[in-house]
Write a sequence for this structure.
């Protein structure tokens, strides 16, 4: 039963297939107070270290409902709106706050590039990460705390993203994906009953299991800026970055 429920949110989550849709029309599948489930959605729910989207819905009467929070709840993706009034079966036009989302896509793709370089150059795995609009971070364990090492690494990443390199997204069956351990370097707590795994592949460079929203090409990242390096105790390093 749980197996089927997990599949349901993946079927609703159209952003997995196309990260560039910012306006769409759909139908209200269910409403509970201010929490709305849509038949399909391109709104990204809070998950995997990436913050949820914001935006608004317009119903058939032209009433506007601001989307203030999006999360995976039980088997569905739930959109919290600012007021009640939406009803099951209503047609809605949906608008995603694109400036916010596109910035989060740039940062998330930059994070994959950085973690790829951290792995390839330093031989360590990023153990934690958090994506936010102003300041994002990656955590990893490394004995060496030579600041030049990290600045050089970010410079290498910046050279790399000047090139046009495609970022592909595709779905693998779980059994197939599990054969490749390297896909799960960034994945914490993979749900046990997820039957399909979404892969984000920076062509010829790195591929990771990831449900986030990503750019189509690394050249859209712009430039990665290293904001701060922190020593979080014995061998624990934290790197804060953003994209400009
Ligand atoms: Zn990711």
């Amino acid at each position: 039963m749980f197996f089927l429920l997990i599949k349901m949110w993946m079927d609703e989550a159209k952003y997995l297939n196309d990260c560039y849709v910012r306006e769409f029309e759909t139908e209200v599948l269910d409403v509970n107070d201010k929490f709305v489930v849509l038949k399909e959605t391109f709104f990204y729910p809070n998950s995997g270290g990436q913050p949820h989207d914001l935006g608004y819905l317009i119903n058939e009467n032209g009433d506007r409902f601001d989307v203030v929070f999006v999360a995976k709840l039980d088997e569905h993706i739930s959109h919290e709106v600012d007021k009640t009034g939406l009803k099951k079966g209503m047609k809605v036009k949906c608008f995603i706050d694109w400036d916010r989302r596109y910035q989060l896509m740039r940062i998330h793709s930059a994070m994959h590039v950085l973690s790829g370089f951290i792995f390839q150059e330093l031989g360590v795995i990023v153990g934690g990460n958090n994506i936010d609009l102003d300041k994002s971070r990656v955590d990893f364990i490394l004995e060496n705390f030579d600041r030049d090492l990290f600045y050089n690494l970010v410079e290498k990443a910046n050279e790399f993203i000047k090139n046009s390199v495609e970022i592909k997204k595709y779905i693998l069956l779980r059994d197939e994906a599990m054969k490749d351990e390297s896909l799960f370097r960034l994945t914490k707590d993979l749900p046990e009953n997820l039957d399909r795994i979404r892969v984000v592949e920076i062509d010829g460079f790195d591929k990771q299991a990831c449900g986030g929203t990503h750019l189509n090409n690394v050249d859209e990242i712009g430039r990665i800026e290293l904001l701060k390096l922190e020593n979080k105790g014995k061998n624990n390093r934290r790197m804060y970055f953003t994209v400009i």
